[in-house]
Amino acid sequence: MRRKKVLGIAKDTLKFILEASRSSAPLEFAGLLQVDDDIITEVLILPGTESSRMNALVRLYMLPNMQVAGSVHSHPSGVLRPSEPDILFFSRTGDYHIIVGPPFDERSWACYNAAGERRDLPVLDVQFDDDGFEDDLY
To answer: I need a surface site. Which of 2, 10, 11, 63 has the fewest CB within 10 A?
Structure first.
């Protein structure tokens, strides 16, 4: 599978990840990353995802027929390095993997490639298109 280069992550998407992780603590938070116009803009949380203090289990068989750029999960312990099980999971879900930890701010996260090696992921200040979805609710 050919992996597409990602230019960065949207600042608002990173804020969502940090807040969701903070809200989930002391349990792990986990999701998959989706790209729009070469920028990570979405976090997909699959049905059946289970979280505990030690890990999060993402049921990849629940993934709809779509590509993901990678994954995101929290380490409430604050250790931002991937474990061996993390790296095994990384190899199945793309090439951009974010781990966040306390205090869940703009400095408490890291990105890794599928092999578990640290990589740069710029935070980009991008505007999201208004798709009008909220208008359809009223």
So the answer is: 2
- CA 46 centroid distance within chain: 12
Kindly give the pairing relationship between strand 8-10 and strand 39-44: parallel
In this structure, which CATH number among 3.40.50.720, 3.40.50.10860, 1.25.40.20, 3.40.140.10 belongs to the domain 8-119?
3.40.140.10
How far, in Å, CA of 122 to CA of 127, rounded? Answer: 15
Question: Is the CB of residue 136 less than 8 Å from the CB of residue 22?
Answer: no
By annotation, the residues acting in catalysis are 28
**Displacement of CA 38 from its chain's centroid (Å):** 15
The domain spans of the chain are 8-119
Helix (H) or strand (E) holding 50: strand 50-51
Kindly report the pTM of this predicted structure: 0.85
| pLDDT tens-digit readout, 47-61 | 656 676 677 766 676
